[in-house]
């Protein structure tokens, strides 16, 4: 029997993103040379939301890019055994010398983050890359640590963390899906 529990509701996600936006501004001493890049398919939505919050605070808009890491993954495969679905990457600004905040919904093993960093480095040489995640669920397989965390959620390897966002799923919530043990 499977069990699900809501970790964050709409209001909690909103508060969490507001806090992360302030932390990004504080750590970077403002927005000079700052940009956000979201990992498809929900990190890009979270990056746009963070950019909106930062714009409300600083009254200046930040460049926001989107990357699809499909071809950079080391565990590439599709459920049907065919070709993986690759979607577009959109980075319409120079990354050289920029402070990049890489944004994802859930940090698990670190493999998606590694793939995203590899792809970013193919676009240019940023000053630094910081990592912002809505949920950190642990179980790292690579030495990757987020700079900004919405919520740390202890999980077992068999659990699933499901992030739903209104732009892609019709509602905002984060659920922990636990398998019966």
Automatic annotation (TrEMBL):
Molecular function terms, GO-annotated: uracil phosphoribosyltransferase activity
Q: Cross-referenced SUPFAM superfamilies, in alphabetical order?
A: PRTase-like
Which residue ranges does the UniProt annotation give for the motif PRPP-binding?
100-112
The family database entries (Pfam families) matched by this protein are listed as:
Pribosyltran (PF00156)
Q: Where is the composition biased (Basic and acidic residues)?
A: 171-181
Classify the source by domain of life: Bacteria
Broadest EC class assigned to this enzyme: transferase
According to its UniProt record, the EC number is 2.4.2.9
Looking at the keywords, is Acetylation present?
no
Which reactions fall under this protein's catalytic activity? UMP + diphosphate = 5-phospho-alpha-D-ribose 1-diphosphate + uracil
Q: Does the keyword Transferase apply?
A: yes
Q: What are the entry keywords?
A: Glycosyltransferase, Transcription, Transcription regulation, Transferase
Q: Which InterPro entries match?
A: PRTase-like (IPR029057), PRTase_dom (IPR000836), PyrR (IPR023050), PyrR_bifunctional (IPR050137)
Residue intervals of the Phosphoribosyltransferase domain: 5-154
Annotated stretches, region: Disordered? 146-181
Name the GO terms of the biological process aspect: regulation of DNA-templated transcription
Q: What does this protein do?
A: Regulates the transcription of the pyrimidine nucleotide (pyr) operon in response to exogenous pyrimidines.
Q: Which family does it belong to?
A: Belongs to the purine/pyrimidine phosphoribosyltransferase family. PyrR subfamily.
What is the protein's name according to its record? Answer: Bifunctional protein PyrR
């Amino acid at each position: 029997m499977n069990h699900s529990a809501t970790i964050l509701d709409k209001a909690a996600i909103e508060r969490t993103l507001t806090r992360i936006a302030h932390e990004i501004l504080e750590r970077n001493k403002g927005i000079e040379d700052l940009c956000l890049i979201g990992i498809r398919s929900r990190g890009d939505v979270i990056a746009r939301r963070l950019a909106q919050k930062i714009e409300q605070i600083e009254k200046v808009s930040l460049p926001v890019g989107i990357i699809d890491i499909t071809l950079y993954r080391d565990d590439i495969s599709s459920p049907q055994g065919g070709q993986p679905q690759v979607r577009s990457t959109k980075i319409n600004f120079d990354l050289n010398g920029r402070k990049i905040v890489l944004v994802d919904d859930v940090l698990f093993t670190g493999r998606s983050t590694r793939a995203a960093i590899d792809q970013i480095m193919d676009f240019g040489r940023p000053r630094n890359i910081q990592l912002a995640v809505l949920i950190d669920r642990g179980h790292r397989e690579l030495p990757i640590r987020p700079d900004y965390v919405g919520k740390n959620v202890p999980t077992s390897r068999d659990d699933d963390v499901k992030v739903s966002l209104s732009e892609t799923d019709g509602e905002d919530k984060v659920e922990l899906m636990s398998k019966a043990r």
